[in-house]
From TrEMBL:
Signal peptide range in chain numbering: none
Cellular component annotations (GO), alphabetically ordered: ESCRT III complex; multivesicular body
GO BP terms: late endosome to vacuole transport via multivesicular body sorting pathway; protein transport; vesicle budding from membrane
Family membership noted in the UniProt record: Belongs to the SNF7 family.
Principal location: membrane
Keyword Transport: yes
Protein name (record): Charged multivesicular body protein 6
Region (Disordered), start-end ranges: 108-142
Database matches in InterPro entries: Snf7_fam (IPR005024)
Swiss-Prot/TrEMBL keywords: Coiled coil, Endosome, Membrane, Protein transport, Transport
Amino acid sequence: KALLLLKKKRYQEQLLDKTENQISNLERMVQDIEFTQIEMKVIEGLKIGNECLNKMHQVMSIEEVERIIGETQDAVEYQRQIDEILAGSLTEEDEDAILEELNAITQEQMELPEVPSEPLPEEIPEASPVKNRPKPELVAAS
């Protein structure tokens, strides 16, 4: 009877080991399937991205990009020339004319307003109290 119990125990241990191995294999298979699904999503994303890039390349050729860059550089150069012209627009003759005009203006008799002859009041009237405004309440943006 003891031999039969030992054989039964040994059989159950082997059965338990087989079951654990099968569970381990199933878990590994589930992980592999999940990883493969993620890889498929990544590949699909890359495929869509590649298609978008190809469409963008069809819309914009290298020649067109170079043309746009050239036009932009020309516009920047043109603006720089305008800035230089405006910055250096006063010649020496212009500066002399401006100084002469300034001298003429400063030498003219200017009519100044009459200064009051009354003495200033001794007491300074109290200023009306300034009303305190309530501070605006800050509200968080949503």
